[in-house]
Every structure is written in C-alpha cells, then in structure tokens.
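== Folding task for one protein ==

=== Format: two labelled lines per protein ===

==== Paired sequence and structure tokens ====
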Amino acid sequence: MHRRLRAVIFDFDGTLVDSLDAFVEAMAAAVEALGLPLVSREKLAELVRLPADQSLPMLAPSSLNDKSLAERLVSEYRRKPLSLSSPEVPIMTLGSCSG
C-alpha cells in the first residue's frame, strides 16, 4: 500500500544549515552600526541562542543603561535579512531525496 505524505517537517536551523555564522555576523553588524564597543565572536555565539530582544540588550554597555539604545540595537539587527548563502554550504533539494 502506497501512502501519500500529508506534511513534511524540516529542522532547518542547525540540521540542514549551520546558521550560527550568519546570526553572529548580523549581531556584530548591529553593534558596529550603533558605534558600540566590539564584542568577541565567542560572546556573540553564546548570546545567539537567546531571542534577539533578550540577547542584544546585553551587548549595550551596562554603564549606559539606556533602554532606547537596547531597542535601537534590536531594531538594527532585525533591519537586514540574514545571509545564509555561502559557497561552502551545500544545498540539498527535495529532488535529491529518495524515499
């Protein structure tokens, strides 16, 4: 008996594509755009696991304690789309799957 699929669920992020670098680059660009002190890649990679509205305010220097700066940082981060295209990342198409 041949059963027709009704739905397919993909675990895209971290399974089909490693998007960590794209998120880290987007966070670094937001920090740079607002003239904030540079943050290490390791720190950004640690924070990227949190939602943007929680992680990005942590990048604003605590000495500023400026809510509007934190909001601008989140807005800047969300302003540009993530770039997941890279020649090093292989693309798997549905046509290449068998089953």
Q: What stands out?
A: The mean pLDDT is 77.
